[in-house]
Amino acid sequence: MYDPYFQQYATSMLDWRWLKAQAMSESALDPLAESPVGAKGLCQFMDPTWNEWGNGQSVWHAPSSINAQAKYMTWIMQRPYVYDHWQALAAYNWGIGNVKRISTDESWFTLLPRETRDYLPRINRYFVEFGGIPVNTPF
To answer: Which residues pair with 40 in a beta bridge?
Structure first.
């Protein structure tokens, strides 16, 4: 249903299937999803992050959420302390500052909170299910 938007907003750094897998993991592709901590929409943005990346659109508008997700993920992946897309996905889920503190530790994955350690393999499963080629994982 949303594949054309994931494909449209994907960047050279980020396969559209990663975006879709991430959104599936975040909201089960429900544009009206809201988490217990207040993350909203298809790609589960917290209000401050949405205010920065949502370009004045509604967080509940799926194409706008996907566009913001793609821009935000690309920006995260360009940070000097993010060494791979797994750390970028962890930063999206747990916070950039948190991942920055552990990113150089060889066992960084084990330092993640349980929610994020579960989040990354779930995204990987969806990515493969959506036709992505399996990649090396830290888990």
So the answer is: 34, 45
**CA 126/CA 101 separation, integer angstroms:** 28
Which SS3 state, helix, strand or coil, does residue 36 take? coil
How many domains in the chain? 1
- Give the pLDDT band of residue 136 (cuts 50, 70, 90): confident
Lowest-pLDDT range, 43-47, 81-85, 89-93, 98-102?
A: 81-85
Q: How confident is the model at residue 123 (pLDDT cuts 50, 70, 90)?
A: very high
Residues paired with 11 in a beta bridge: 14
Q: What is the CATH number of the domain that holds 75?
A: 1.10.530.10
Identify the domain containing residue 100 by its residue range. Answer: 3-129
Phi-psi category of residue 114: left, alpha or beta, with phi > 0 → left and psi -120 to 50 → alpha: alpha
Q: Tell me the DSSP string of 54-65.
A: STT--TT-HHHH
Inside any domain, residue 136: no
In a domain, 137, yes or no: no
User: Rounded to 5, what percent of the chain is helix, strand, coil?
Assistant: 55, 5, 40
